[in-house]
Amino acid sequence: MLTTVYALGLRSVELRVLKITHLDEDRNGVFIQNAKGKRYRVLPFSESLKNVLRGYYKRNRPKTYLFEGRNGQYASESLRAVFKSALKRVVIKKRVTLHSRRHAHATHLSESGTDFGSIQELLGHNIIKTTMRYTHVSNKHLLNAKSPLDFLGDF
Questions:
Q1: CA 1 → CA 17, 71, 90, 98, distances in Å?
Q2: Residue 36's domain spans which residues?
């Protein structure tokens, strides 16, 4: 679940309502329906995530929702408990939330060169300012930026 949240940049509610039928391996798309603001969007379905989910599917055989709880849809409290348990196992003491995975997704897209307009669409934001708040540029990335002087060549 945590890998899926990060890989797709999902909100927790989007993960909880994600159905098996929303995954399309042939078209390499994950279809998010009725997201925040009743928006619909298509996300890229990476080979890495496909491999993770194939193994998960073989082990768990969900029927409707990709991640199912006792009564169908996975409960938000259970998802938070899974996240807290994972934090304890890897000894992360910094204050992070499950939603931090969505911020990390946006930041890593930005650092890999994805333009803000594309990130905005992938996250399903109406306003670019929201997307800008999601992307946190690391100092390492800033130090790798080229000076405009380097583009001019020798003079």
A1: 12, 17, 16, 11
A2: 2-143
**Domain of residue 136, CATH code:** 1.10.443.10
Q: Dump the DSSP string for 50-67.
A: HHHHHHHHHHH--SSBSS
pLDDT over 90 percentage in the chain: 45
60 in any annotated domain = yes
Give me the number of domains the chain comprises.
1
31 within 8 A of 22, measured Cβ to Cβ: yes
pTM exceeds cut of 0.90: no
For residue 24, the cross-strand partners are 29
Residue 154 lies in a domain: no
Active site residues: 11, 36, 99, 102, 125, 134
